[in-house]
Structure formats: structure tokens, C-alpha cells
Amino acid sequence: MTSPVELLSLANPVFKSFAFWVGVLVIKMLAMSLLTGLQRFKTKTFANPEDLLSPKLKVKFDDPNVERVRRAHRNDLENILPFFAIGLLYVLTDPAAFLAINLFRAVGIARIVHTLVYAVVVVPQPSRAIAFFVAVAATAYMALQVIASAAF
């Protein structure tokens, strides 16, 4: 049996892959904040009076472009943060490297695609739904494996 210290080491290819995709997804989520700001400046849609660029502008909360980016960012928070937690616990189950690395890759790529088709270049459904469900299915699989490992 491999010790937790060994499993949570960059010498472990599963943990190394997990760490890589966590880093990518953190950068992606940080970029969503920047994208929201860019949309706000582009549309002159600001939620706080002190942010208004001109006295002629009014506080506004309902610009569809800003709200689309905000919804995509919220969706990231609802889905990527659970992946961070369950992915780490999944690493501790000492899974097969091929499967684990591809699950992490699937979540990372699916979440990037989800943002691209939802908030950057809007593509009709089912593109967003497919990206969403690929990441959810991979994360749910990992969660079930963690539960099974912890219960037995």
C-alpha cells in the first residue's frame, strides 16, 4: 500500500496531473474575473457608483453580455471547486494512472470548452451541455470511487 505522502508527491504521475489541471483551472477562473471586467468596460455596465466612468452613466445590473460571463463564472465555482476537493481525495485512493490522468484531463478540457462556448464565442446547444456533463460525469465518477474506497 502506497503512503499518502507518496501519493501526494509530484513523483506520482496521478498527483502531478491533478496539480497541473488544478493550476490550469485556477488560471481559467481568474481569467473569468478579467473577462467580466472587460465586458463591463466594453458595455459600460457597472454595478457600483464609484466605478462609473462618467457622471452620465448609471449603475446597471442587467447587461446580457456581462451577465452571461458572470453566469459562466458562477458555473465554474459550482463545478470546479468540487472537482478540486474530490480530485485530491481521488488521488488518495491510488487509482490507475491512465484512468485518473484522463479523468483530470476531461474535466479540465470540458470546463475550458464550457466557458468558450458559453461566454466567449456563443455556440448553440448542445455544445455547452456536452461540456458541462463531461466534467460532471468525470467528477461524479471520482466521488463514487472515493465513497467506495472510504466505505469498504
TrEMBL record:
Lineage: Eukaryota, Metazoa, Ecdysozoa, Arthropoda, Hexapoda
Transmembrane segments: 18-38, 80-100, 106-123, 130-151
Chief location of this protein within or outside the cell: endoplasmic reticulum
Protein function: Conjugation of reduced glutathione to a wide number of exogenous and endogenous hydrophobic electrophiles.
InterPro entries per the UniProt record, alphabetical: MAPEG-like_dom_sf, Membr-assoc_MAPEG, MGST1-like
Its membrane topology: Multi-pass membrane protein
GO molecular function, one term: glutathione transferase activity
Subunit comment: Homotrimer; The trimer binds only one molecule of glutathione.
Catalytic activity field: RX + glutathione = an S-substituted glutathione + a halide anion + H(+)
Biological source species: Drosophila yakuba
Similarity comment: Belongs to the MAPEG family.
Full protein name: Microsomal glutathione S-transferase 1
Annotated localization: Endoplasmic reticulum membrane; Mitochondrion outer membrane
GO CC list: endoplasmic reticulum membrane; mitochondrial outer membrane
Alphabetized UniProt keyword annotations: Acetylation, Endoplasmic reticulum, Membrane, Mitochondrion, Mitochondrion outer membrane, Transferase, Transmembrane, Transmembrane helix
Pfam family, one: MAPEG
Entry-linked SUPFAM superfamilies: MAPEG domain-like
The EC number(s) this enzyme carries: 2.5.1.18
